[in-house]
## 1
Amino acid sequence: MHIIDRRRDPGGKSLANRQRFIRRARALVRRAVREASAKRSIKDIEKGGDIVVPADGVHEPVLRRGSQGGKREYVLPGNKKYVQGDTIARPDEDGGGSGAGADGEGEDDFRFALSDDEFLDLFLEDLELPDLAKRQVLGVEETKPVRAGYRSSGPPATLSVVRTMRNSMLRRTALGRPRPEEIAALEAGIARLDDEGGHDEEVAKLREELDRKQRRMRLVPFIDPIDVRYRRYDQIPKPVARAVMFCLMDVSGSMDEHMKDLAKRFYSLLYLFLKRRYKRVDVVFIRHTHEAKEVDEETFFHSRESGGTVVSTALEEMARIVHDRYPATQWNIYAAQASDGDNLPMDNANTINLLKAAILPLCQYYAYLEVGHGREDKAGEASSLWRAYELVAGSEERLAMRKVSHRRDIYPVFRDLFAREGAKAEA
Amino acid sequence: MSNDKPAASKPKSRTASKPEAASSLLYTGSDWNFDTLGRIFDAVRRVGEVELGLDTYRTQIEVITSEQMLDAYSSVGMPLFYKHWSFGKDFARNQMMYNKGYQGLAYEIVINSDPCICYIMEENSATMQTLVLAHAAMGHNHFFKNNYVFRQWTDASGIADYLSFAKAYIAKCEERYGIEAVERLVDAAHALQSHGIHRYPGKRSMDLATEERREQERRAHGEALFNDLWRTVPKAKGKVPASKKKLEEDRRKAILKLPEENILYFLEKTAPRLAGWQREILRIIRLIAQYFYPQRQTKMMNEGCATWTHHRIMTRLHEQGQISDGAYLEFLHSHTSVVMQPDFNDRRYSGINPYALGFAMMQDIERISLTPTDEDRAWFPDIAGNGNPYGTLRDVWANFRDESVISQYLSPHLIRKMGLFQIVDDHDEDEMLVSAIHDERGYREVRRALARQYDVARRDPDIQVVDVDLAGDRRLELRHNVVDGVTLEEKDADKVLQHLADLWGYEVRLIEADDETTYAEHKAEPMRPFA
């Protein structure tokens, strides 16, 4: 007998199989993730959780005897009242009943838990994000190297000559390494006395002195490994700031559930994106009809208001909140507006002015999302709000606008932003 | 373990009067370390080998974490296994069940290999480790080494190497032919796994010496029987020669050795369009299924043997003062919950508990051997009162499997004790019939029925490849020999047949019939043939 301690062995043996399973059931899991994410709050979008997929999709068929028909016999334990010849009513067909369901695969659903990463990955995949963008959204925290003193080992490229030489000099001085000049002077002295002749005693003394110094020189090297110093760098995360994200949405009767769902996905993605870049992200929800109000997420997505549509009220509200709580000097401000494009025609001018004068100068990025069903996209029939924003968009690169009728259209709205981020990083 | 505390402190207070009591305890409290484990194993083995006469493989104990146990669960308990999504599915389910607390983990997993590998969990208390070692390292280990189905079908010393070969081979195929192609093949093979088993050991081909000896024996026999009179007996008129077509069919079947019930074997050898590596993968999966076949046949006995053994060993250790009263109570608590058998109308009932039935049968055999009643003497004249319970049990463990041990040794006493009764559910009748109960008229019938219930060959539907004309349309004909009118689960059967058609590469037809009726006919055309 011998005992082996396996506890230290690398774990996660089943991980590969698990990933294969998720890949196998990808379509099903994706649908389940989509349903789950629609039910979640924007801020919870990163959390993993239970996923239910229909068992049929991941079923492994085998040749087995059916559960119905034919003549079957069972032996059961615990008889108390039956005698031979008794008859018993058949239990409910689907109940599995007495003993029949012993090996039954009765479950209709297969339930398992997804980890945070898996959930997010599938969520992003569902939005049909290109890989590059996915990496940017999921990207690990960026760090930059910062000088942090010296260390005694490291790659040659980081050798600090100045520090190394300083150590070397200290040591040489402390240990009394003879300087080359001293030796040269001694040698010159010996040579001079030799030339003069007759100073044998003195010469012998000097030679002894020279020997001693030369030996000392060999013993105390010019540069010892203990002198060598390398520059040391610490990886510290890039300075992260705070960001606030304004979600503006038209909640008048013309916005239906499909549109709201698209808007929610857009907000979720923006939130994720910001979450990766800033340590702290606040989300402010402003909904508007003919008047605007700051609300919580639940109300934002789920309650209905009736009334007209005046977009400028929302912008005013946003400007007010920024002024009160999120000074632009301390916060990065992002705004995302979703609307079906309706606006009171006489409000358009006001809206543009507000946008140009008050909102855009504050924002890092302002996204306008026009949600629809994709049916009414006939050329030249842009909505009034769209036409109005187009005037601004020409001159302002911070404003991105897109028409979205399917969830796969959401990503391109980000493209401008990512492109700009990329350019900035290279500069 | 609060109830262990007094026991743990007892030796200290009594050191003066009874020093040996303190030293004879194997452990105190619930903590253990590798030394304790070694001492426990030695004590357990002493009881097992000396008193019970168990004969085991060498044991290798591996201590693992609960996480690793979860991993092991999901690859059928084997330490290394090829990769496939279905194991990931099991893992995902087990992980969730475990994390939510719906299901605990097994205390141990034991592998039929030489040396016999026992995985034990680090969370177990010292008592549980003792129990686990008695159960797995003694009970299961003895069973694996001695039971005839294991001896016949599995090669304990080779399995670890074979699995590592299988894993590497399949990984190499994935690299070369793509994960998707391999996965599809493994899917198909898994679907047919239950019909990739040889149920009878094949004929070994003979070496020349044996061949010659047999030839001589035959000739000697012929000479001994020689009688010239036979020459004079008028010959019968030649039989009507079978039709040419029939002859050809017979010849064809003979060449392919049809009918064949091992479908995977048949595909591996005969499927016209499979590539070499595909045949090899089919073979791997077939051989692994074959390795597990004895376990399916002996589930109840194997657990019965291990449970009875651990119960006996723990009791002996307690009697010898090697484990404390508290520890013994802890053991009993765990033991009784393992062998609990809920009644059929209990909400917890989910079939007959193999641990309960197995343990009860072993105890019953021991009782019959030691203190038989008249009834036992009438039913089991060969073992009743032979006074050698351990020998009797060892013999039972070596020479029976679930089905045969029940039909041989399930006693009326036990049938009464468990209140076993038989129900017949005939689809043509309105109600189910209680056809036999635990009384004089019913014992034999109940016993026969229960044995049938444990007969693996009867539980799996009997499906055979019956015909194929390789020179003609190559349609593969299969037949399900329907028993008692129970047909196959239709949806599943169609899916499996689709896999089969893809493997075979041509049309496949499965007929479900018994001698009188044809119940159903399934057909499948290859949709995405392999090759």
## 2
Amino acid sequence: MSDPVTALKGAKGTAGFATVTEIGPVGMITLRGDFANKAVVKAAVAASGMTFPEQRRCATQGDQGMAWMSPDEVLIMCPYAEVHDRLENLQTALAKHHALAVNVSDARAVFRVRSPKVREVVAKLAPVDMDEAAFTIGMFRRTRFAQVPAAFWMPEADVIQVVCFRSVAQYMFDILNNAAKTGSEVGHF
Amino acid sequence: MLTIHCPNCGVTAEETEFHAHGEAHLKRFGPGSSEDDFESYLFMRKNPKGVHFERWHHRYGCGKWFHVARCTMTLEVFGSYTGQTSVPPQQIIDTIQDRRPDWVPAQDQA
Amino acid sequence: MSTRLATPGRLIDTSQPMSFSFNGKKLRGYRGDTLASALLANDQMLMGRSFKYHRPRGVVASGAEEPNALVNLGREGRFEPNQRVTTTELFDGLEATSQNHWPSLEFDVGAINARLSRFLPAGFYYKMFMYPRSFWKHVYEPIIRHSAGLGKAPKERDVDTYEHFHAFCDVLVVGGGVAGLQAALTAGKAGARVILLEQTDHWGGRAPVDGGVVDGASVDNFVDETLKALQSMDNVQLRLRTMGAGVYDHGYALGYERLTDHAPGSAGPRHRLWRIRAAQIITATGAIERPLSFAGNDIPGVMLASAVRDYVVNYGVSVGDRTVVVTNNDNAYLTAIALKNSGLSVPVILDARVLPDDRGLVAQAKALGIRVMMGHGVSSVKGGKRVTGVAICSQAGEGAVLEEIACDAVAMSGGWSPVVHLWSHCGGKLRWDTTHACFSPDVDNPPKGADGMGFVTPAGAASGMFALDDVLHDAHAAAEGVITCLDMKLPKEVTSPVAERREESPMAPVWMMPHGASAKLRAKSWLDYQNDVKVSDVRLAAQEGFVSVEHAKRYTTLGMATDQGKLSNINGLATLAGALDQDIPSVGTTTFRPPYHPISLGAIGGEARAEIFQPLRRTPLHDWHEANGAVFEPVGQWRRPYAFTRGSESTHDAVMREVTNTREKLGLLDASTLGKIIVKGPDAGKFLDMMYTNMMSTLKPGKCRYGLMCSENGFLIDDGVVARIDEDTWLCHTTTGGAERIHAHMEEWLQTEWWDWQVYVANVTEQYAQIAVVGPNARQALERLGGMDVSKEALGFMDWADGTLGGFNCRVYRISFSGELSYEIAVDASHGQAFWDALMAVGADLGAMPYGTECLHILRAEKGFIMIGDETDGTVIPQDLGLNWAISKKKDDFIGKRAQERSHMTDPNRWKLVGLETLDGSTLPDGAYAVGEGTNENGQRNMIGRVTSTYHSPTLGRGIAMGLVHNGPDRMGEVLSFPGTDGKTYEAKIVDPVFYDKEGEKQNV
């Protein structure tokens, strides 16, 4: 097997007021199931190593995490190299239950945007209230960034992490850098 | 541009995150149905000036479908509710009747 | 003449001189000037020509309401027409040229129209250009096109950038005058998140020009203190140079920020479009002064009284040495007083009113020694390109001249109209205020939001309050009301400031000056300066039956174009009401539509231009394609290689080579764009039986089946190969454009119709790089990679298997869209490129070449395989395409089944799929229609079929095509005529749609 290659091979944009870095590859598993079923939740917790997230929240710790995607879907994140084993264990644990777990690690691109004004970068692209009081660390939001679907969260202050489809990685990288162009600071937050 | 509340993920967001899918609570007619029933299922749509029930899709968000009751004339929204129902819940009907006393639910119409 | 005064204006910084040019002439101004004030300071009163009569036009106003003074600004990549001089901040090096004239501003040939004006009344175009019909295309239209339009269109690409910004707040306050400042302060003190927008580059609006005392200090002081307080609040955001452009449903508002218009070339975007969601909006948008309708009121030098005052006080510019003031209200006296105090001459104030006593400003003016003539007005203004004097008459009469006074400027005031645009954009209603003779917001009928409650509150002059004290109280009260709506509390100690009251006499509405003006005077009394609409035109429209205000607007062009009648609307309505003998409120207003003032298309487009105009979807192999001669074609948002050209080879030659190579050796296709959807659950089989026309529940694990998907209308919407993965899991392939659509289609049925079925669906399209390995050498290539058995016995046609090839984990589907021995291999996308490289390496001496979508099309057309979007167009059912074999007869139901039983769907006369072969081997034109006997009721030849796919087949050395033909399958061998758009008629024979390897021997090896 070859070394995995991300969509943009770790591209980095540093010209603007935020640095935009493609990270990854990140291991990702989409799990769909009935979360009223304790066995499904238990399997998700075991596979992710994280507590089960509340509505529209995510818990991350280093390379692993779990995000709430919809009432019957979570996204489990882990080191890329571990995804096949974790998926297998998860599928084994869920064998007797109606659930669907699939590897989507390669279907995504992940960006890390860092800047004291990172909230402005998001506010230029997504119709989301980025006020400090309105969007806080631990929240997970699925929305659109300009013309493509995306999900994002703030793992720490001044940083957002954005997940989008792999095919539009270049577009996402370009719009993030464009929104962070020097001279376009808004001074709103 | 409307703001819509998605009852599935709890987000209240602007219309650009969503997609409207037309009239809600259509009853499907399949093989064996009469020409008239099938025609009305396939083609006949309500176009009320006032209270209307619609199906919406949170396309850029959680990806789920749901229903919205709103006024086509004033764009007032009476509420969003689950996509997994063939009739509007009582709570929505109560809200509408509270704000539109003259309105009569479709199933009660003569 | 107009000139710069010795006393500097309050906005001018004389330490920063600037040079600029107008029509090539070098001129000078200062920081703080608008282009309007700088031109006036240089005695450039003539700034443009009117649209219809090409009348000489000077500036009338000092703000966004200016109808006349529009110029071309900048050059090359920064050229822009129709820029208002009053809203253009002066900068060093500014270049402006006047528009709408030929050959020059001073001497304009088009001005002949003015001489002909009595032949060009309202509705002239409709009346004149009707007959004879044939004249329209060759005579009238070219003439109208030549003379139509304001300004020149830019020729070069815009060099600036633009962006959007999404902001959210509790209270959006539009307008940074004293009302807006006060409203923001009150709301801010209650703890609300406030955004305050001001369209100009300074705070305070017109109050500092008009003066006054607030809480014992000057109004300037009030502005400074309030601003300081607001700046210290974290919950308040202030934006200058940002216009509230529009108010829309559910508290959505647009702000239009002009960041670099005053400093072109500086870093950052030129304009930023603020997309604001506000729980409550306060419109503190002020008021606009109305002109008076008297003869010659459009001659350069006749201006709004407030504008004359603004130029003196704000910019230190006098518009004339001798200014006659004409008014129907007290406010214009401020202008006379300001001029007098600046050492300028005011020969007379003509006041249309007859007042019982002198008080307030009237008394003040008289005390300054200014002559005031009550009950008088202007009979006509003298002059051509510049005012030279006025003829005075009694307001009550018909215009008999009592006296002529020489002057070089006229300051007029017909009263004030609140700026109700933003209030009205989303449905706020208006009421007629008889005291001030204006429409003001009917606060009992505000625009309503998602909760059915009002979400806009007017404040200050925008709500019809004109005295400073009323303005401040109203603004405070507006904010208080808004705070209550938000369920917030205002601290008790927060109260409204108090301003000193001026004694004032009531205004008197004057819609025509003099009241009984003769037809001759009315024909020279302008209502709309930009569109050359006069009192006589509106009266004519009424006389000809255009009694609705919306009709009268279109018929006369009153209130159209770039100013949308900010000055002319109310005067026009009043004139129409007068002509119809109705009162003004019953005539009503035209509709106020956003934007308030024109905004740039760049701002609307935002970041979406050039590379990021729209997302382009790229496969994991995209870079390789790019580096290896790919000519791309768009397929939805995807970019797929159409063909891979080599050296100087043409695209057509490349396609021919790729087809031949794939048929004879080995072709590789990037099929990653095909949709891949996992469907899993105890009810997945039942669900797929509903989704597809075929039976999918009976498919055995390890097997593939080609499936068709229809809409509930019965029409074919997608196709693809379905693989059964295990007992309760299927993988469905969709077309390239279909992945998201079909995924959503499945979810919609599951979520809204069969929500009790146990099925989960996931779109895994982009998880995989999928490569089709096609051709007689395909198996050999895979065997060289090694790792799994790909023999006919182990992996037969329509089988699939998981395994490894060359060390890559993969899933191999033995399926064929080409008729050749073919494997489609899916590997994780992150390994896609490495796997492709491995295939190219082992295939090098087997003739491995990449092929593109056009080759794919030819291969499938040679085999008679249909393509969604070519053979289908949303009106085609599977039965039309001879695909009955793929429609299960055993199933009670599937999506589309009932529709396919409808009489029209079972009609034997439907056009059906056939192959078409030209008699001479040429290629049929795409989309050509076959013509039959006779003509239809429109005299057109009857059509009996059309071409859906057509290619030159290098395999067969001739043109091949598929088409839908009336009774096609029953007409084998018949020759049809296809007239082409090139004038030639093509003859083609109906044949079987499978042109190549009918028995399928090649794919079954």
